């Protein structure tokens, strides 16, 4: 849960796993071969704990009969050193994922929230990453510190929803930092979710790196400027294998899978979304442009009467704080209900 002390942390590198160059290297990763990825890259040390937490959560909700959605959120990093000083990152703050998770919870889903550690979380997102310091939400009243009365009504509403999610065990919060942690976690969680068959929904909103440095090429220690020609650092990255097809075919066949496609060029968005559907054969791609992602998105499906549907907020709605996720989630849920109905 957002406030409970988490057991798993991902942002510190696992230094005791730093590559010891006195032992033979890991075989070079053939990144075109998806299975090979998991043999040539090391699993995070906490993976069994993550599996256990996921499995308990799913077992719990098999009993409650709730549908379970995996929401992935935030950006993965690509470490350039094993004792990581430098890494490649991306812009994602986790707004889409954290906001969507709240709407899923309010619609009766249990949520596994696989997010970039320290990115936005459901409920706390309203206060954690704003320009305000949290102390700005407080006020001194009669010599005591209290919630500033101007925020207390809205905070109470959010607090009640948050407490409900905690009390009913509706939200499992799991972290990742690196792309490697993300991929290992996604595989483990997917295989656990497989038990729920069509009741499982994947909502993959994380911004996952397309390129990475496999462990076989990762330097153990901080890269030194003098080790490189003229002080230049040339980084040669491998493509991250595309695991979505694996997810569809073998990790969680039966589940409904929604992925996101982010582009910056509006002319290629629909083409890329369709390409993703052709390649991975999943059910739904939600396309969005970096520049307008909070205002409009597009649903792209392979079949059906309306294979392409745009959802947009007006400027007035945006100004009044309406969130695009309030349009996205009910429509994803409709697709999921249809998926369950068709596969009964
Ligand atoms: O986290 P955020 O709200 O700032 O951004 C959300 C997003 C644009 C990363 C997400 O909507 C998305 O498109 N994710 C997939 C990115 C991709 O194409 O890999």
From TrEMBL:
It comes from Wickerhamomyces pijperi. Belongs to the PPC synthetase family. Transmembrane segments: none annotated. InterPro entries: CoaB-like_sf, DNA/pantothenate-metab_flavo_C. It comes from the Eukaryota. GO terms for biological process: coenzyme A biosynthetic process. Residues 67-117, 193-310 form the DNA/pantothenate metabolism flavoprotein C-terminal domain. This is DNA/pantothenate metabolism flavoprotein C-terminal domain-containing protein. It holds the Pfam family DFP. GO terms for molecular function: phosphopantothenate--cysteine ligase activity.
